[in-house]
Write a structure and sequence with these properties.
Muramoyl-pentapeptide Carboxypeptidase, domain 2; globular; alpha+beta; 3-stranded mixed sheet; 4-stranded mixed sheet
Length: 385
């Protein structure tokens, strides 16, 4: 009996050894745990880099290179600074009471409503206010959109720049229209020159602001100040002043902006202006900012030009319909590796419409830094009796 038990024990031991040898062949000395720990982890599979998307020119190059309007129903699409223009029409370069300046830019386009407005405004200003005629600067490009130079707005065919220089009594040649320079209305960064900004200019701006379809008019803060001081000389009604808003660089022209025409889907209005005439705290705040800016500019070299920090708008930043506007009529958009066409290069090279903004003289700068003020109150050109 003892032998039987002993035999069974030997058999069990032998079976265990055999099983172990099957799992771990001869010469293998590491345990399962040890082998697993020492085995290097599998190398991660490298993801293939996605093919770079083809570079698309900025929207200003796409729209600035198209010389014809979109053959679509007339519409302003999007907002004044982020949109496009379908079915635009051009303001004739000559009219009985206007002439278009800087023809090389091809920016005398707008909605039918804008073109009709300019023609009526020009006629009224001559007949009712004695203005010799309008010199019309930039409106919009044939299909609107961002411009190659000069503006962040003017994109939907509802904006127009009107020079504060009276129209000559003859038809200007194309070359004269490229070379003529608008007259600055300022004598220093804070005050208009009363020999240049007269009651004629006050009446002209008031006339423009009087139309119900006008949403805003932009002028230099010094011009806004002069309008506030002289509004009573052109009538008791001061409500038109609420539409006249101070803004940078509008010292030789004023910018007219129309409301979206009624029923025009996809056109985005600005918030309506308040009923306040803007001649109080708002204008004071502008002058504080203007003072800081003038002091800073006076300390820069004469040839200083501010660097552009904003990235240019891409087509994807505009309303989706603007892609259809851009390509309507079989237009092939500018390719990524293509150069701007000659018409666009001519627009880029065109002369600035007005002279540089006035800077503080060293004496004026010292006066401001010492707490002084520049300028005298405008003379009362029409004393009340």
């Amino acid at each position: 009996m003892g032998r039987v038990i002993l035999s069974l024990i030997v058999l069990l031991v032998y079976s265990g050894v055999a099983a172990a040898q099957m799992k771990f062949p001869q010469g293998a000395t590491k345990s399962v745990a040890t082998k697993t720990a020492d085995t290097p982890a599998p190398k991660p599979v490298k993801k293939k880099k996605a093919s770079p998307q083809p570079k698309v020119p900025p929207a200003k190059e796409l729209f600035g290179s198209v010389t014809t309007p979109a053959p679509l129903a007339a519409r302003s699409i999007g907002s004044y600074a982020k949109g496009c223009l379908a079915g635009g029409i051009s303001l004739p370069i000559n009219g009985p009471d206007w002439q278009v300046i800087r023809l090389s830019r091809n920016r005398n386009w707008g909605t039918p409503q804008l073109v009709d407005f300019i023609e009526r405004f020009a006629s009224d200003a001559r007949a009712l206010d004695g203005w010799p005629g309008l010199l019309v600067g930039d409106m919009s490009q044939p299909r609107g959109g961002p411009m190659l130079t000069g503006h962040s707005s003017h994109q939907v065919g509802l904006d127009a720049d009107i020079w504060l220089t009276p129209m000559p009594d003859r038809i200007l040649t194309p070359q004269e229209r490229e070379n003529i320079t608008a007259v600055s209305m300022l004598k220093d960064p804070f005050n208009v020159d009363p020999t240049k900004f007269t009651l004629q200019q006050v009446k002209l701006i008031k006339r423009a602001a009087s139309y119900p379809q006008v949403a805003r008019i932009f002028v230099h803060p010094a011009i806004k100040k002069a309008l506030c001081q002289e509004a009573d000389l052109v009538g008791k009604d001061r409500s038109w002043l609420s539409k006249v808003r101070p803004w940078w660089n509008h010292y030789y022209h004023f910018h007219i902006r129309l409301k979206c025409p009624p029923g025009m889907d996809g056109c985005v209005n600005q918030r309506p202006v308040s009923s306040d005439d803007g001649c109080g705290k708002e204008l004071d705040n502008w002058y504080e900012t203007l003072k800081k800016s003038a002091i800073w500019m006076a300390r820069q070299p004469p040839d200083y030009k501010p660097k552009k920090t904003k990235k240019p708008l891409q087509l994807r930043d505009l309303p989706k319909e603007c892609k259809s506007v851009l390509t309507a009529g079989g237009i092939e958009p500018l390719a990524s590796d293509a150069e701007l066409p000659p018409s666009a290069l001519e627009a880029v090279a065109s002369k600035e419409a007005g002279p540089p903004a006035p800077r503080l003289t060293p004496t004026q700068l010292e006066t401001l830094l010492n707490g002084g003020k520049l300028g005298m109150p405008l003379p009362d050109r029409n004393p009340r009796r």
